[in-house]
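Protocol step 4 of 5: obtain the predicted structure for the target chain.
Materials: sequence only (see below). No template structures provided, no constraints applied. The aim of this step is simply to have a reference model before the mutagenesis design in step 5. Sequence pasted as it appears in the construct record:
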Amino acid sequence: MPVQVFIDGEAGTTGLQIRARLAPRTDIALIQLPEAKRKDAAARRDALNAADVVILCLPDDAAREAVGLIDNATTRVIDASTAYRTAPGWVYGFPELAPGQRDAVRGAMRVSNPGCYPTGFLALVRPLVAAGLLPTDWPVTVNAVSGYTGGGKAMIAEFEDAGGATYTHDAFRIYATGLGHKHVAEMQRHASLTRPPLFAPAVGRYPQGMIVEVPLQLAALPSRPGLDDVRRTLQAAYAGERFVTVADAVETEATRALQPEALNGTNQLKLFAFGDAAAGQARLVALLDNLGKGASGAAVQSLNLMAGLDEGAGL
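Step 4 output (structure tokens):
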């Protein structure tokens, strides 16, 4: 029997990409509501409770409401909003995050999809903290740039709707200048840090693709790790992984520039440890598609695990 899946919010950017990944599959059966019923509470309740797995692609409050409409003990949930990313009882949907995380996702009733920026940040930082190279109280800085689809419908309209009141000609801009971005708590919690990282996000005038960068003064760290120590730690953490890879020293040395759209359309996350070994400085960089491994691909990967299917199906 195919796994019954309902995408609540399938008309949004993430929902559309999840549906595109699932629609051709024979091991998945999509429960879909006609457009006129998508906001009908009774119809949504029926669909939510009829599904084996529900994927919520909704704003935070609407996601909480949807969870409240589920009144059975069998429907499992993957939430793509920020509502439950640090909530008790919810498993963080990043299978590669740490040993045991994949099994936790596989057995979970409630999974919170990681944010796109935190996915890159955590992939770089969590292994270094776990290995003791980066102290839990270290003042970590993370710089990042995303395509404008990462900002949802409002930001997409700013960059695409030339006749709209909010249309912008910006080629690039920083935001969250008050340092209170909603991803910070998620980054701190799942990296096992005791202080919040300083998060400096930006958006560029292109639809999708992302670079997340963590600069480190290696010579200032208590253990004074070398650049090779950092790279080996990352390689050991993701050895054998299908979707997270670490560039070796040869590839890293040959890479003189990175552009954020390089992995678009994939569920891949690639990590680089650039730096100056003699100066004891590193630029740790994560490259990913903010709508792939940063959103829809991650949700499908968790769905596959929860349903007992091939983890890479549809990816």
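Step 4 remarks: The longest strand covers residues 210-217. The longest helix spans residues 116-130.
Proceed to step 5.
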